């Protein structure tokens, strides 16, 4: 079995049946730490589902404003860690000589969990990062019918979720509703970073005219990540937060919540969704 999931013995109880309980095998979504280093210096540790780790590191550096395009990175490679047996839970990134190294003061020390990507930052100023891309003028228009059909496409592509039921997903779509890439992870912010890292390495930034769909809610952090990649539309199958809406309005991004066919709520930038 791949490192994205593992099998465990569980006791299943059904109070509606006379037999009461049974022993069976269950699949669990994997969660392991990944250390991101810049020129061999530790920068961040995130709890994630193994897989697409280089993309995750690239997306993290992009969303933090450390890099803005693929040429900002000279090399990025998985390295041996200190655990036994070695699982290569380290990504070392070497930046181009012209790219300033990341700050190392205490307010910029990153420790992220699978539920929250900014838990280790020491101040509000450290959380906020401004994008180099102006999404306010993005001419994207997408029919509401097309947008409403995206969650079903996202769900159909979630292979690991089918086995474990315990992973978030993020998918990048064209304005025509075509799924370009999907990533799954125990952390929603990690799934988004993996998508953005893929786009960066493919030379697709800024993501003009594209849609990012996330399972679950739209937080401030996910909205900021979308903005950092130049995405004009972020959609979520659940609710947005107040800060997510405020940031979407400030940046000129379209923010859609409760996207569940046939309905949706548009919290910002409604002009991009045509009826």
From TrEMBL:
Coiled coil: none annotated. The active site is at residue 116. Pfam families: FdhD-NarQ. GO terms for biological process: Mo-molybdopterin cofactor biosynthetic process. Keywords: Cytoplasm, Molybdenum cofactor biosynthesis. One of its GO terms (molecular function) is sulfurtransferase activity. GO terms for cellular component: cytoplasm. It is found in: Cytoplasm. Mo-bis(molybdopterin guanine dinucleotide) binds at residues 258-263. It comes from the Bacteria. InterPro entries: Cytidine_deaminase-like, FdhD. Belongs to the FdhD family. Required for formate dehydrogenase (FDH) activity. Acts as a sulfur carrier protein that transfers sulfur from IscS to the molybdenum cofactor prior to its insertion into FDH. NCBIfam families: fdhD_narQ, PRK00724.1-2. This is Sulfur carrier protein FdhD.
